[in-house]
Structures are given as C-alpha cells and as structure tokens.
Amino acid sequence: MSLFSPEKFMESALKNLPKEIDGPAIIAVSGGVDSTVAAAAVAKAIGEDLLAVYVDTGYMRLNETEAIEEILRNLGLKYKIVDASTRFYEALSGVIDPEVKRKTIGELFIQVFEEIADEYGGDYLIQGTIAPDWIESGGGLRDTIKSHHNVGGLPEKMNMKIVEPLRDLYKDEVRTLARHLDLDVAERQPFPGPGLAVRVIGEATPERTEIVRQACHIAEDEIDKAVENGEMESPWQYFAVLLPVQTVGVQGDVRAYGNTVAVRAVQSFDAMTAQASEIPWAVQQRISRRITNTLKSEINRVVYDITDKPPGTIEWE
Ligand code: XMP
C-alpha cells in the first residue's frame, strides 16, 4: 500500500512550483498519464504562463492526435499541436540500434521544443518524468537498462531549465494523483515516449510504422472488447510489436513470405516488474485472425510473448 497522498503532493506543488518556475514554461504533452498529470498540476500552480505542446512524431497510436487534442481542450490549457512526423522519420532513417533510436528521438524532441520555446519565449521545460524512467536510464551506480527518451535522450547543453514535478512518483501514484485531479486519462494504458518507433524492431520506416500502428490498434481493440464482455480482466498494458523476421506462409494456395507480429500484454503495478497476462485462447485467435486479415499482404504470422519482466522488459526495445 502506497502512503502517497495526492492532497499533500498538490499542496506542496502549489506552494513550490511558482517559486521554481518564474517565467514562461512549456510542457510536452503526449496524452499519456504522466505528461497530462504534470501539465494539469503545473497549470494549477502557474496558470497562464504554461503552454502545452503536443508533437506528433509520426510514431503515435491510431487516432491519437485527435484524442490528445480533446484531452488538451478539456484541460482548458493553452496548447499547440505540431506535426513533426517527416522530421522524425528522416532522423530515424537507417537507425536500427534501440539506444540510438531512443537518443535520436530524445534529441529531436528537444530540438523541436527549443524551436517552439524560442518562438514563445519559454525559459522552462516541464517534463512528466517519473521514478522508473530515471532509475532505468542508469547513471551513478546503476546500469542503463534503456534510455527513456525524456532522460537519456537529453542533450548535454540545454537552453531551457528542466522541471520534473513527478520525478519521485511511481506509476500507481501518478494514477492516484490523476484521479484526485479528476483527469480521465487516469485509466489510459501507458505509452512509451519514443512511441511506435520502439515497437518496430529494426528500422522504423513510415511503412513499417503504419503496419504496427494497425496491429497495435487491433490488439488493443480486441482486448478492450473482451474486457467489456467479461471474458478477461484488463491487462495493465497491451500492444503489438513488428519483428524483423519473415516467415513462409500460405494464402489460398499461394506461397506467402510475410512479416511477423508479436502481441504483448502484461500485468504490472509500477512497471518495474511485470507478468505476461493470460489471454483467453478465443481472444488470442480473434487478434491473430483480425491482424492477418486486415494486414493480409504484410503479416502472415502472429505470436504471443509470454516473457515476464525480468528477464524481458515490457517494450521490446
Ligand atoms: P520497459 O520497457 O522499460 O517499460 O519495461 C516500462 C514502462 O515504461 C514505458 N516506457 C517508456 N515511457 N518513455 C516513457 O515515458 C520511454 O522512453 C519509455 N520506454 C518505455 C513502457 O511502455 C512501460 O509502460
């Protein structure tokens, strides 16, 4: 049981954040729980001085940009939506190594924000970093498990001062805070900062990203429906990954040589450990059939990842 008190957290945030942030600030909002909660908390503390920026990296979920715009509108914040997808696709062209991917995305994120901040005159960059992000990003005596985009990806020289109001919180505490602030993003499943780029294993080209975007949507939609029908409990996080593996299959009576999608669903409490979820067989079959039917010319094999964390991590990269 967490001893975290959202009332005390907000009391201290309202007292301390205006002292820490004494000028215009911008926050990168991804629509995930962390950045949305950070935006709502900081907006309460500094109000009009905050601009929320959503960057469409091209690696977002299906219909995510529209959903995020609605969240931002409902928060009543000043916000700006920037389509930077072409720049991100170009930056990741030819990049295969997961750490290079993460760092490239992190650096471009900051570059895009710095441009917006210059335009807007922002002195502070608010980030929704939470405890597991910096713990896993290494430093000091810790090993680097993976560089979370908002930690390891930051360039050494920054023009803006970074403020991370949720830095000491774990995921369950952020959700408690979200409920306290009456934000309906509280129940949204986590989505990694580098987005679908870390769910396309190998080069995250626009074409391969589109495949994983569809596959993720199908996996999410089928699991959501199964949860609604009472067939299973909701996993903590569930998605699809596109593998750089081609296998032989058959379509009608014609040989196919297509790509493989892995489906992953996990139970977790704070993302530091996770257990692979037991998905009923019928639900797995619906996911597999719908993915191979919808993406007929691309995918001819679907597998389910049964690895816990550790030894796996939740995302594949
Ligand atoms: P891993 O893959 O490290 O993920 O077991 C733990 C949780 O964090 C999410 N994740 C990220 N979140 N920036 C984030 O804000 C990142 O760079 C990042 N990488 C992974 C992941 O989806 C899971 O919920």
From TrEMBL:
Q: Which keywords are on file for this protein?
A: ATP-binding, GMP biosynthesis, Ligase, Nucleotide-binding, Purine biosynthesis
PROSITE patterns tied to this protein: GMPS_ATP_PPASE (PS51553)
Pfam family membership, one: GMP_synt_C
Enzyme Commission number, as recorded: 6.3.5.2
Q: In which pathway does it act?
A: Purine metabolism; GMP biosynthesis; GMP from XMP (L-Gln route): step 1/1
InterPro entries for the chain:
GMP_synth_C (IPR001674), GMPS_ATP_PPase_dom (IPR025777), QueC (IPR018317), Rossmann-like_a/b/a_fold (IPR014729)
Q: Does the keyword rRNA-binding apply?
A: no
Give any GO molecular function from the UniProt entry: ATP binding
Which cellular component terms (GO) are annotated to the entry?
cytosol
Q: How does it assemble?
A: Heterodimer composed of a glutamine amidotransferase subunit (A) and a GMP-binding subunit (B).
How is this protein named in the record?
Answer: GMP synthase [glutamine-hydrolyzing] subunit B
Lineage, highest ranks first: Archaea, Methanobacteriati, Thermoplasmatota, Thermoplasmata, Candidatus Thermoprofundales
